[in-house]
Amino acid sequence: MARIIVRVWLAAVFAGAAVGAQQRSIDDFFREFSDEWVRLNPNLAVATRYFTGAEQDRLDQQLTSYTDAANAERLAAITRGMGELARFDRSRLSDVERVSADLLRYQLQSYVEYDRFTTYEFPLDQFNGANISLVNGLTVVHPMRVPKDATHYVARLRLVGPRMAEAVAEGRARAAADRIPPRFILQATITQMRRFVAPLPSMNPLVTSFSEKASSIDGLAAGERTALAAQAERVIASDVYPRWREAIVFLESLLPRSADHAGLWRFEGGAAAYAHFLKQSTSTDLKPDEIHEIGLREVARLEREMDALLQRLGRTQGTVKERIAQLKKDLAYPLTEDGRTQIMSEIDAMIREANAAASYTPPPMDGSRPGIFQMPLRPERMTKFALRTLVHHETVPGHHFQIGLMVENQALPRFRQARLFGGTPATSEGWALYSERLAAESGWYADDPEGLLGQMDGELFRARRLVVDTGLHAKKWTRQQAIDYGIEASEIERYVVMPGQACAYMIGQLKFLELRDRAKAALKGRFSERAFHNAVLAPGTVPLDLLEQEVTRYIRAAGN
What is the pTM assigned to this prediction? Predict the structure, then answer.
C-alpha cells in the first residue's frame, strides 16, 4: 500500500523555556482557555452541555453571532491562546499532555490559517449554510428535557431572524468582492429556503419540533406549553419568515451575476484556498494532482474487484455502475410508509446485532442526549443495498465507537473530549470508512454477497470523490463532467460548497490501513488487532501525523 505523506509541524512551536508556566499547569491552561472559547461560542455550549448552572442557562438562551466583530473577538482569543500555549516546555509534559498540546496547537494554527480563506465560503447554501444550521441548532441539538429548556428554546428562536440578517450581510460582502456561488448552488439554496417558508407558521419545523418535544417534558404544564408554542409561532410569522424571504430576494438578485463554473479555481487566489481546504480536511500536504491520482488508482482497483464478485452472482451485462444500479433497484424497499417502517426496523436490528450501543450524532458531555443516527429516507436511499455499510459507518464500529469513546475518556482534557476546536475529518471519516472495510474483513458479510458489494461500492464512491473533488476545484471540471464520472448531482453540490471535505474519507482510511500494515510487519506474531484499534482510538480525532506518532509508540511498547 502506498504511503500517505502527512504534514509535520511539531518543532519550534514550543520553542523557548516555560516562561511563567510554573505558575499554572498546562491542564489549568487547557481548562481556562476552553472555558473562554465556549463562552464566545454559545452554539458550542448548547451542543456540548459544557457548563452547568447559571452559566449554562445564560448560554442556552443565545445563538452564536455571524458578525465581523464576533469573529474578530474569537480570532483574538485564538491568537492569545497560541501565545500562552507556546510558553509551556514540551519536554516537561506527560505523554497525554504532549499530545493534547500538539493537537491544540494544530487546531489553533488551522483556525488562524482559515481566517485568510473565509471569504471563499458563502454563508448561505443548501448543505450547511446559516439557513440550515440555524434550524438544526434548535430542532436537533437544543435540549428539551426540563421546563426551562422550552423557555430557552423560544429565547433562542427570537435570535434566529437577527442571525439570518447577519448571514445575509456577510453574503452581501462576499458578493461585493465577486465571491458568488455557482448558479446551480444559488438555485438549490433558493428552492430549499422557499420550501422552509411555504407552510403556515404553525406547521414550520421550528414550531412542530418544539411542540412534539415539549409534550414529553415532565413538569411543563399544558397551558405553559401551549403559550410557548404560540410565542414560537408568532416569532416565525413576524421575524423568521420575513428574514428568510429577504434572504431569498438577495440570492435571487445574484442569479444574473452567477455562472455555472463550480470550482475554486475560478477565483483569484482560489488555488491557495483549495490547498488550505485540502490540508484542513486531510491533515496532509498532498497536492490536488496527488490526491487525484490516488483516487484513479483506487477506483480502478475497486472496479476490478467488484466486477469479479458481480460475475460470480451472475450479473455479467453492462458496466459495474450499471449493474450496481440494477442491484439497488432489485433490493429496494417499497416507497410507502410500510417500507419506511421496514427500513428503520432493519437499521435497528443491524445496530444491535453487532452491539447494543445507541444510534448516532455526537452526544453532549453530560449524557443528556444520546448519539443520534439520522438517515434521510429519500427514494434513492430506500434500498437494502449498502444499508448495512451505512449503519457500520455511522454507528458500530464507526463514528459512534470513536466519538463515544472520546466523550467518555476522562483522561483527556475536556477540549479533546468535546472537540471544542473542531475535529479532524481525515481521522473521523477515515476511521468510519476503515470500519466499513473492517466489518467486511471480520466476516460480517459472509452470507451476504450483495451486502459485500454494497461495502465495496461505498468505498468506490469515496475513491471517486477524490477524483471529482480535485477535478472540480483544481482541474476545471464542470458539474456535468463530475456527474458523468459517476457521482449524483446532490453530492456534486456538496463538494462545491465544502471544498476538500470529501477527500478526508479515503485519505484517512488509507492511512489507517498503512499504519495497521506497519504494525503487523513490525510485531509479527505479537500483533493484536484489538490492541492496534485501542491505540488508534485512544487519542481521538487527532491529525494523521499525531496518529502516526501514537502508533509508533504503541509498536515500540508492544515490541518490548
Answer: 0.89
Decide if 88 contacts 18 (C-beta within 8 A): yes
What is the pLDDT tens value at each position of the chain, 560 positions in all? Answer: 333 333 333 333 333 334 444 468 999 999 999 999 999 999 999 999 999 999 999 999 999 999 989 999 999 999 999 999 999 999 999 999 999 999 999 999 999 999 999 999 999 999 999 999 999 999 999 999 999 999 999 999 999 999 999 999 999 999 999 999 999 999 999 999 999 999 999 999 999 999 999 999 999 999 999 999 999 999 999 999 999 999 999 999 999 999 999 999 999 999 999 999 999 999 999 999 999 999 999 999 999 999 999 999 999 999 999 999 999 899 887 777 877 777 667 666 654 643 332 234 566 777 665 555 555 555 565 567 778 888 888 888 988 889 888 988 999 999 999 999 998 999 999 999 999 999 999 999 999 999 999 999 999 999 999 999 999 999 999 999 999 998 999 999 999 999 999 999 999 999 999 999 999 999 999 999 999 999 999 999 999 999 999 999 999 999 88
| Residue spans of alpha helices (H) in 313-413 | 320-330, 337-354, 387-394, 399-408
* DSSP symbols for 296-335: HHHHHHHHHHHHHHHHHTT--SS-HHHHHHHHHHHTBPPS
- Consecutive H or E run containing 145: none
**Mutual angle of helices 529-537 and 544-559, in 10-degree steps:** 140
For residues 287 and 500, give the distance between their C-alpha atoms in angstroms, rounded to a whole number. Answer: 11
d(CA 474, CA 487): 17
Among residues 498, 539, 525, 521, which one has the least CA distance to residue 101? 539
Contact 262, 478 (CB under 8 A): yes
327, exposed or middle or buried, with CB in 10 Å at 0-12, 13-18, 19+? buried
CA dist 352 → 302, 341, 392, 395 (Å): 29, 17, 11, 10
**Identity of the amino acid at 332:** A
CA distance 54 to 177: 42
Joined together, the cell numbers standing for residue 228 give 410557548
Element (H, E) at 286: none
- Distance in angstroms (rounded) separating the CA atoms of residues 487 and 483: 5
Backbone phi, psi, residue 174, to 5°: -65, -45
Residue written as grid cell 506518532: 549
Name the one residue in this structure whose C-alpha cell is 433558493: 190
